[in-house]
Amino acid sequence: MAKQLLGKEVTAALNEKIKANVAALQEKGITPTLGIIRVGENGSDISYERGATKRCETLGVACEKTVLPEDVTQEELLAVIDKVNKDDKIHGVLLFRPLPKHLNQSVIENALDPSKDVDCMTDGSMSGVFTGKKIGFPPCTPQACMEILDFYGIDCTGKKAVVVGRSLVVGKPAAMMLIQKNATVTVCHTRTKDMPSVVKEAEIVIVAAGRAGIVDDTYLSAGQTVIDVGINVNAEGKLCGDVDYAKAEPVVDAITPVPGGVGSVTTSVLVGHVVEAAMRKYM
Ligand code: NAP
Predict the structure, then answer these.
(1) Of the residues 143, 194, 231, 232, which should be mutated to test ligand 1's pocket, given the most ligand atoms within 8 Å of the CB?
(2) Is 42 a member of any domain?
């Protein structure tokens, strides 16, 4: 039976560190604050926003929310970003993406001050992931995967790792972070040939394909650690990952469940970035 890598255990440890840092900031009269900018009423954005707001409240981080209509103009949105950039009380900013098609997403993303870029929205932050320099912050989801590996003492050094997915939000930065941890990394995508045999060779597998249950026991082998980033809704309307948990669990050594794995850690990583942004400024 595989060991379950539980998000709540990792989150509890992260939250303790965050609380200590919040207390140190509060001693200096600073309340770390997350600025949330949402365009439109997308259900998954609202649900993530609710989770982030609640986690912020629990950890002593304030939230300032700006909700804009779906038909907001580029100029109006840029003006909001300029305002949060100049607002000393806001330390980190979360802008929900993708943005509506009429907006130039790249221009808007890069308008944010990198020091407030707590979810790796700007090219500057992304360059930090590749260069190892502390520019902005790494994306929260792949960092959550690394936090899980660290918490459970899974050493990546010299290990073969496979990342399924090459998006800029998850797959590519996850691969970079694994290299940083001295793993030997292969990235799979829709053009990868014979993916099952590639994934089987790995000791650490991170799956971020956005396809419910595509990785099953035919891709997996004994001794593997599997981190499932996927969040999908199955035919029965239930949340499920990109890994077929029921088939994978008897085969591998350790696995994250969905729900209860990466997702909850991601929120604490985000709040941790807001607090770190405030600390970089004042401590
Ligand atoms: P994405 O932008 O759609 O990228 C998916 C990647 O997976 C692409 O690189 C694609 O390859 C690859 N892929 C798709 N189907 C594949 C297949 N059958 N075989 C091999 N590769 C395949 O998705 P994303 O934004 O990276 O998100 C991935 C998943 O993570 C989604 O389920 C999303 O909901 C979830 N997610 C979770 C969190 C969290 O906090 N837990 C946060 C963000 C995202 P090509 O490049 O060749 O098309």
Answers:
(1) 231
(2) yes
